[in-house]
Write a sequence for this structure.
């Protein structure tokens, strides 16, 4: 019999293998577009990653999300048509060489991925006054994004790829999925087994943008820019550690 204390607490420490597994999921997670395999995703695996999403933190324990599981080829085609329209418009927003590069990027796997999933946010769930959301109303949307990230990492641990597609008119996505007024679509995800995961973000590999040096993003006590009083020891540690972890190196 476990003691009452054991029932309400968990041990704070992970062992080394558990800790390494968490970082492996984080550093090897990728946004997947063109590498989906047609193999079906078993219900028990889908159930686990959905449960992971549902155990995300949320403002005031609001749990504002719903999950629209899309498997129907007809619905996927409608969503894909909405993407195609927005994608053509998006290309025109870039100039010159960037436009040419943009058009070559594969930015969705809607039809190839066996499962698509839309996470939505019910902005009125539990009424207008929610603990932690009294002043910054967007906290419910941020909570839904936490659910996305839980699912994304759990999927990586299951060997599944996830790709987030956001190139839509909200209205078109709503119509394709029959999402009622008052519910906000937050994330449209393509999910499935993959032939491989890339080591680096595809946009990084394509030369679109580099990963920013983490040390340039650190601020100390106040937003004071590079001239501020930096904690050099922490700056060095953060820079070296992220390089080691991103390369799959050992934890300290
Ligand atoms: C809110 C949001 C929205 C989108 C994305 C991400 C997020 C967080 N990403 C994926 C994005 O391009 C990718 O995460 C980065 O390029 C980094 O690559 P990795 O995720 O590390 O592989 C993404 N990718 C894509 O191909 N089409 C898209 O419409 C979007 N939209």
């Amino acid at each position: 019999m476990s003691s009452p204390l054991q029932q309400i607490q968990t041990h704070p420490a992970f062992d080394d293998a558990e800790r390494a597994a968490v970082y492996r999921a984080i550093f090897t997670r990728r946004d997947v577009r063109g590498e989906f395999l047609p193999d079906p995703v078993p219900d028990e695996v889908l159930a686990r990653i959905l449960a992971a999403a549902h155990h995300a933190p949320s403002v005031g324990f609001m749990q504002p999300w719903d999950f629209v599981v899309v498997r129907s080829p007809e619905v996927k085609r409608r969503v894909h048509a909405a993407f195609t329209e927005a994608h053509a418009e998006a290309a025109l927003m870039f100039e010159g060489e960037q436009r040419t590069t943009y058009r070559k990027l594969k930015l969705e796997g809607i039809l190839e991925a066996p499962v698509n999933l839309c996470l939505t946010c019910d902005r009125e769930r539990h009424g207008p006054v929610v603990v932690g959301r009294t002043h910054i109303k967007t906290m419910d949307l941020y909570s839904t994004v936490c659910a996305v990230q839980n699912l994304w990492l759990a999927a990586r641990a299951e060997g599944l790829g996830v790709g987030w597609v956001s190139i839509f008119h909200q209205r078109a996505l709503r119509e394709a999925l029959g999402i009622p007024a008052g519910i906000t679509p937050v994330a449209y995800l393509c999910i499935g087994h993959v032939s491989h995961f890339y080591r680096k973000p595809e946009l990084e590999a394509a030369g679109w943008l580099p990963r920013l040096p983490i040390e340039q993003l650190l601020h100390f006590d106040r937003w004071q820019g590079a001239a501020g009083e930096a904690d050099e020891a922490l700056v060095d540690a953060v820079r070296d550690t992220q390089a080691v972890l991103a390369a799959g190196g050992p934890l300290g």
User: Anything to note?
Assistant: The longest strand covers residues 183-193. The pocket of FNR is lined by residues 30-31, 33, 107-108, 163-167, 201, 203 (CB under 6 Å).
